[in-house]
Every structure is written in C-alpha cells, then in structure tokens.
Amino acid sequence: MRLDFSGERVLAVVAHPDDAEVLCAGTLARAGCDGATLGICVLCRGDRGQPAKPIANLAAVRRKEMAAAAKLLGAVLLRGEFGDGQLVDGPTQRQKLTELYRRFRPTLVLAHWKEDYHSDHRAAGALAEAVSWFCASAGHRTQAAALSSQPALWWMDTMNMTGFEPGFFVDVSEQIDLKRRLLACHQSQLRRSGDGDFAPLEEQRYDKPKPVGRRPA
C-alpha cells in the first residue's frame, strides 16, 4: 500500500508533551514532506514527569520544549492543559477537545491505542475517538463551527508494541534524523533515561500506526 498525505490535515492527539515525538513524529514528518498540514494536540501539562533531580516549574519547561519541537516539525501546537495523572474521558475534556478539533479541522487523527499501559494515554485515546465523531455533529456546540465530515482515525503503536497488533506500517526511514532532533527538544525527559520506570526516548524511533474504521455519529 502506498501512502500519500498530500492535502491532508494530520493531528496527533497525545497525553504528554513528548508522546508525539516518541510515538508518531516520523509519521508526522513523512506527512509534512508530502505537503500535509500538521498539528499536535497535547492534553496534559507534563507537570509530573520529574527527573531524579527535580526541575522547578516543570510544566513551563515542558511547554517550551513542546513548542520548540512543534516549531522544528512545522506543526501547529494545541494544548488541553489538564494535569498529569488526571486525564479522563469526561464531558469537560470532550468539550475542550471538540473545540480544538474544530480549530484545527483535521482530516486524519493519530491517537493513543485505547489499551495502552498508561492511564493518561488510554483516556487520550478514548477522547480522540469520541471527539472524532462529535466534532462533525452540530448538536455538540463550541465556539468554532462543526466539521463538515469526520476525520479518519489511526491508532499509534504502544511502547515496545505491548498489547498492540498493527494493521500496517509507515516507512519513516528517511525521517529518522529529524525524529532524533525532535526527541532532543525534550531535555527534561532525556534526563530521566536512567530512571528504572522510564524508557529512554532515544530508543523509541519507529512509527507503526494502525487504521480504524469510522461510522457516522
């Protein structure tokens, strides 16, 4: 299967400031090379991912890091500003994400697999799926107008492919160097590479999104 992202508006909906760079930056970069408009929606502030030597005002630091990565990628950055460990699939979160979808107007959404190991990731995936329906429904009112049609939704793989069976793979071999540079923007998290409960970012290089079918809301 040959993928062509030209003319698409691709939005990655992720829980934390470095999740897009770890899980789908190669696919985003590949889409950008095809001429797609790119967006990254980060739902959580990233305020709890402290290295062994704590960083003051971590949320502000990570806000700058994700902004630098988005600029390097050429992506629009959208933020949910929910607290780490507090993300749920609830009405407030759905309303916020619906507004963000309608501002960006994606044709394709990349989202966390709903059975991911991390509770924030699972909530982000559930929200992304629900809102991909509701964003095109005029009955769900926001300041921005409803989309004319629902975006397609692809699931991103999980760390080490745990509990995930891909439907297809995206070849991002030509985007690996850019992906490394994007990961390097997240120095606060690179400092955690020695933590026993944290996977080193540099090892997370490949993107294996899985497609999911859509049906009318």
What does this structure look like?
The chain is of the alpha/beta class. The chain has one domain: Rossmann fold (3-Layer(aba) Sandwich). The protein is 34% helix and 15% strand. It contains seven helices and six strands, in the order βααβαβαβαβααβ. A six-stranded mixed sheet has the order 3-2-1-4-5-6, sandwiched between helices. Strand 4, helix 5 and strand 5 form a beta-alpha-beta unit. The relative contact order is 0.21. The C terminus is likely disordered.
Strand tally is 6
Secondary structure tally, helices: 7
Approximate strand percentage: 15-25%
Task: Please list the strands of the largest sheet in the order they lie side by side.
Answer: 3-2-1-4-5-6
By CATH, the topology is: Rossmann fold
The number of domains: 1
Mean pLDDT: 89
Name the descriptors.
217 residues; alpha/beta; Rossmann fold; six-stranded mixed sheet; 34% helix; 15% strand; disordered C terminus
Summed up:
The protein has 217 residues and is an alpha/beta fold. It is 34% helix and 15% strand.
